[in-house]
């Protein structure tokens, strides 16, 4: 496990211990000292500290993990899981939105279509990707690719990782809400198997615009929500600093989403988050994709559409006269 360069606030005690371990190892080599006993004790302490921290993560801390800058992004999964990925560009109306990418690829020797939110890592790429926040043309490009997949009988796999659709003036002028709404309608009726995986942030309609699928999977420390914790806090408490309180109230973490049957599977992450071992995380996603894709591909199209309708028809719960209904 490689130590991440970026340290979250709650990880600092662990990073201090890891720094001490590095110093002990360095002393042992440079001064030819036998510090094996001290090193072993410190390694046990590090392991215990890591487990203690990870066993008591709050919902807000999981949101921070979902946003970790070294967390694997969509292209990391695409390049490792698929072969022959060919990115397609443009919505045939306005321009090519780099925050939402897609194209055909092969998985286990079978052709499919991939669409995904893509964030950047370095400053220049973050700007070109608009920090993973698509404009309306991004959703129109995604729909173009999904309709192409339907035409050729290709399953669609979507990787969700966005704070939300871009809320700027230009996006509003080009009707971002309409673009997302059309995607929701068309994905609900798409005559091909669809599978979505929330790999980081799943923010509001920006996430749902490629997320109406036969099955939705989520990584353990990802979130999926109608609004960001900061946005919710600003509305309810007039203070974005109450984001932690809002995160708890929104019940947006993977465990809650599984309990509410909003997602079909929670994919486990390495201890402390995907950024601690991207390779292991990507391997877990590959395994989950293989399982669910095989199951939905085996279903006739009419049955698939009926099951998709029933899935979304029964999503959620409400209370009436003290009785919970779903």
Give the DSSP E fraction (strand runs of 2 or more residues): 15-25%
Work out the helicity level. 40-55%
Whole-number count of domains? 2
List the total number of helices: 14
Q: Can you say what the CATH homologous superfamily of the largest domain is?
A: 2-enoyl-CoA Hydratase, Chain A, domain 1
Over the alpha carbons, how many angstroms does the gyration radius reach? Answer: 21 Å
Briefly note the structural class of the backbone.
alpha/beta
**CATH topology of the largest domain, what is it called?**
2-enoyl-CoA Hydratase, Chain A, domain 1
Low-pLDDT residue intervals, each spanning 5 or more residues: none
At CATH's second level, what is the architecture of the largest domain?
Alpha-Beta Complex
Explain how this protein is built:
- The chain is of the alpha/beta class.
- The protein folds into 2 domains: 9-56; 64-315, 2-enoyl-CoA Hydratase, Chain A, domain 1, CATH 3.90.226.
- The protein is built from 14 helices and 9 strands.
- The protein has helices spanning 12-30, 36-55, 59-66, 74-81, 123-128, 136-151, 169-173, 176-189, 204-208, 229-236, 243-250, 254-259, 278-297, 301-313, and strands spanning 100-107, 110-117, 156-162, 194-203, 215-219, 223-225, 265-267, 318-320, 323-325.
- Strands 1, 2, 3, 4, 5, 6 and 7 form a 7-stranded mixed sheet that branches. A two-stranded antiparallel ribbon has the order 8-9.
- The radius of gyration is 21 Å and the shape is globular.
- The model has no long low-confidence stretch (mean pLDDT 92).
């Amino acid at each position: 496990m490689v130590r991440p360069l970026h340290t979250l606030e709650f990880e600092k005690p662990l990073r201090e211990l890891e720094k001490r371990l590095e110093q002990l190892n360095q002393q042992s080599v440079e001064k030819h000292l036998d510090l094996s006993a001290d090193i072993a004790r410190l390694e046990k302490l590090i392991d215990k500290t890591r487990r203690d921290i990870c066993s008591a993560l709050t919902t807000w801390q999981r949101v921070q993990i979902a946003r970790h800058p070294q967390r694997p992004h969509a292209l990391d999964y695409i390049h490792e899981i698929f072969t022959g990925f060919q990115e397609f560009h443009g919505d045939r109306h306005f321009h090519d939105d780099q925050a939402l990418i897609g194209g055909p690829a092969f998985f286990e020797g079978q052709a499919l279509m991939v669409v995904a939110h893509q964030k950047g890592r370095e400053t220049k790429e973050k700007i070109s990707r608009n920090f993973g926040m698509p404009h309306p043309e991004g959703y129109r490009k995604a729909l173009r690719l999904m309709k192409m997949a339907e035409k050729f009988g290709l399953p669609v796999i979507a990787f969700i990782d966005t704070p939300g659709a871009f809320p700027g003036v230009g996006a509003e002028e080009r009707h971002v809400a309409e673009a997302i709404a059309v995607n929701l309608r068309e994905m609900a009726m798409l005559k091909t198997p669809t599978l979505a995986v929330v790999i980081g942030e799943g923010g509001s309609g920006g996430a749902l615009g490629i997320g109406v699928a036969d099955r939705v999977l989520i990584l353990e420390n990802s979130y999926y929500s109608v609004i960001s914790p900061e946005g919710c806090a600003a509305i309810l408490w007039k203070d974005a600093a109450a984001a932690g309180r809002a995160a708890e109230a929104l019940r947006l973490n993977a465990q809650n989403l599984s309990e509410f049957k909003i997602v079909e599977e929670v994919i486990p992450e390495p201890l402390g988050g995907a950024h601690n071992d991207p390779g292991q995380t990507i391997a877990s996603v590959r395994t989950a994709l293989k399982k669910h894709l095989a199951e939905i591909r085996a279903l006739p199209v009419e049955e698939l559409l009926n099951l998709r309708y029933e899935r979304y028809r029964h999503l959620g719960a409400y209370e009436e006269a003290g009785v919970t209904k779903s």
